[in-house]
Amino acid sequence: MTRIVFRFPGGRYHATPWGHHVNEGLIEWPPSPWRLLRAFVATAFTKLAIPDPVPPEHPLRRLVAALAEALPSYFLPRGTATHSRHYMPTGVLDKGREKTTLVLDASLALGDGALAVVWDGDLDPDCHSLLASIVSQMGYLGRAESWVEGRLLADSDPLPEGDVARPHADGTAPGPGWEQVSLLAPIGVSEFDAWRTDAEAGVAAQFPLPEGKRATPKAILTKRQKALEPFPEDLFACLTRDTAWLQKHGWSQPPGSRRVLYWRRSDSLATMPPRQSARRRPPPVEAALLALASDNCHGDVLPLYTRCLPQAELLHRALVGIAGNGEPAAPPVVTGRDDAGRPLVGHQHLHILPLSLDRDDDRFVDHVLLWAPMGLDSSAQRAILNLHSIWTKGADDLRVTLAGMGSIAEMAAAVGVRTLGPSKVWTSCTPFVPPRFLKKGGANTLLGQVQAELASRGLPEACVEVLPRDEVVRRHLHRFVRTRRDDAKSPPQDCFFGLQLTFAEEISRRPVALGYASHFGLGLFAAE
Fold it and tell me: Which residues touch 255 (CB under 8 Å, ≥6 apart)?
């Protein structure tokens, strides 16, 4: 007997039955005899360097002929039918976006189960040795992701445990708990030779040769040769024909193959409802860095730094929508409101701060720092991971890529920008807009509001200096958009300042953002 054991290192087996589309979600189980023989031939060519064409007396031809004469039996491990869904790109653009098509990847989850295939009859020593080499060199069986390890068993080796699958014979049924499946198998060599002889006779009758001693016209020989092209010269050649050849010659089933019925247990392909895997929630992180890129063909249409406020609002709106999808509400760290809808205090929730890292000047926003002193929880992190694009005014959508997550200290060390310090002196890089009406005296003077903003963020008092007009113009602070989209959230009065803050001690590894819309990029300072 010839006995082979296959194990699947990936724990899955992928193969679609002949004549079915991949999106039908069907699994060919057990692997058909035709699939096995094609896999043996392909491995012999690719791994054992067997010449093509194969010599007539080569052991590979004898091996194929011997295995084609009898149908194998199988010992099947228990498995669970499953599938995944993939939206594959088609290479066709529609309104600037590449179209996709849904593809199902059906597979059988086998775990560490082993499949055994058994042919009755013995092989000659050369064929036995060749088959052992082929099976040991096989990398996959079925689709390429269906990794496999094979071994030819000795007569004394035990077969792995499994349910028997055997060919239907004599019109008998094994009884309840069994089902029939149709598999593709090769016909015997003698049967193929007879079929091929009939095909040649039919072609000869269609294009008869001249009688007598007259020379055969070349046109007739050419027509005969063309008419015989759909009929491979032998069974071995049938196993080497690809799908393109079959389609070219109009074959709906490979020549040299036949449909056979096998009996297998009805529960060989078990199904069960999808189970939600238990995932450990990631710990909160202080910050995340996003990289922005344009879909424009020039790749340089990024939002202006002076439009950081409306761009931050668009990004915030996208995060809230993603975080709230499938949840009762987006998390407070993203919305800035508690479960009762009341605004959070202490400025511990999300800040969306513009950065310019990849450019020689600071005119464009190419990165965004998401900073939340209270910590970005698992819901917020999931929303960030699922944020792939955001709208921008007057241009194509921006592509968003997560560049990193961690503590603000780790971000400061990795990014190395002036907006994260360290320094005693900090100067406005976006305009400071007072959060309340300015008064000539009391707590709501410009100085009073700045000191109150510092205190609310746990920062010490600072010496505040108003930048002169020419410095404000040089820094383009007058060009910034300073009002939010919602009129109800507009600043109390339309005024702004460029400031320089001097602290007694060095402020390091954290942003300094104060005033109106400081969670959306305004009032941001940079270390001098």
Answer: 230, 231, 232, 238, 241
